[in-house]
């Protein structure tokens, strides 16, 4: 990338354009999809292509194309920045009918993807205030979605708390689960001016689903300190429903300070760049005001294609009956295949309990060379994965004495591996991953830690 000094950029320009983990990830993804058909793409956030779901979109798109007036109007006019009023109404009604949550269209804003929605929210609620305070975004259980890491227009916007590493089954040390360390959260909120608490649920990268109890406690924290509680639901319920626990699909967490973010991407529509925020009207107004400045309006096609399905509720039924079982099966297969490949290659690794999303979060405790080196080796073998380091941001404030050494060393020993690609690609990719790790551990003389069983 051109040296920014040559361009004489602003701080804003430099901070957003100097390069980031998410830029590398999206470039890798684009390259693999467009030019490198031989690559095994287990890295990006593309959803699986589920034939029944794609058929649903094609049907809906056909009806939209056939309705000449609606089609012409959609393409030839801008929506209001908040979104198409009829879509906002349909979405709000779906919420009230299905979840007994009393909201209306004033609580909904469409955004050009949940990514842009998060950018608006984080910079509304974090950063320098007019009276000189620096409001922070608190990540209560690091690691968290790499896509947030460089969103702050202000530097150092995030304060993260290392997640507690727990073992749900005391007899199985190969499956771990992250939990919120509430003592640490307490210490951070006592020290910092927190504007919002932010989680993705299910969490990208780990597939963790924070418990209801954790959500309630985080909402209580937010209410107590006058902050907002943002739940990014890109993989959650009621849509797309990429979850393990069926009870999660039909329940929504909603509190006085909650902001919910949804996306159409993971139900097969990432190309339509449509996200939806549900929040109190004062937040919705501000987000819509930003939309007007940065983009005038949102892409209307996603709203048009999905609106009839929100009106009828069909979208939720399809997520429950098609998307949910599809990924549940793929998840079980992926865990089995990866464990088998690791066992055959003689590599010891731990997997985060896969409770949602379509990633496996793998921890290789014997990896001394670092996950970025492993990522490079895998790229040479034409397998794309995501090295874990980039997901651990906002932790500089944690002193050495407060940092759990196991968590600390794990930061460079993680890989995020997607299982949304077709089965044959996933299977082949997993075998190459296990063999490449085995070779790397051998070459770095770490093989003392290798064992025959995972
Ligand atoms: N939030 C999370 C947790 C994600 O993983 C992603 C994409 O991978 C997004 C938001 C972005 O979603 P969208 O495509 O709607 O911008």
Class per helix and strand makeup = alpha/beta
**Shape estimate:** globular
Question: Total domains, how many?
Answer: 2
Indicate the CATH architecture of the largest domain. Answer: 3-Layer(aba) Sandwich
**Mean pLDDT reading:** 93
Computed CA radius of gyration, to the nearest angstrom: 22 Å
Q: CATH superfamily of the largest domain, called what? A: Type I PLP-dependent aspartate aminotransferase-like (Major domain)
Uncertain spans: none
Tally of individual helices = 16
CATH topology of the largest domain: the name is Aspartate Aminotransferase, domain 2
N-to-C span: 42 Å
Quote the beta fraction: 15-25%
Number of strands: 16
List the helices and strands and how they pair.
Elements: H1 4-7, H2 11-17, H3 21-34, E1 40-41, H4 51-66, H5 68-76, H6 85-99, E2 108-111, H7 114-125, E3 127-128, E4 134-142, E5 158-162, E6 164-166, E7 175-179, H8 182-191, E8 194-200, H9 212-225, E9 228-232, H10 246-249, E10 258-263, E11 275-278, H11 281-295, H12 301-312, H13 314-345, E12 350-352, E13 359-363, H14 371-380, E14 383-384, E15 386-387, H15 405-410, E16 414-418, H16 423-443
Parallel strand pairs: 1-14, 4-5, 4-8, 7-12, 8-9, 9-10
Antiparallel strand pairs: 2-11, 3-4, 6-7, 10-11, 12-13, 13-16, 15-16
Helix pairs in contact: 4-12, 6-12, 7-11, 13-16
The site of pyridoxal-5'-phosphate has 14 residues, from α7.
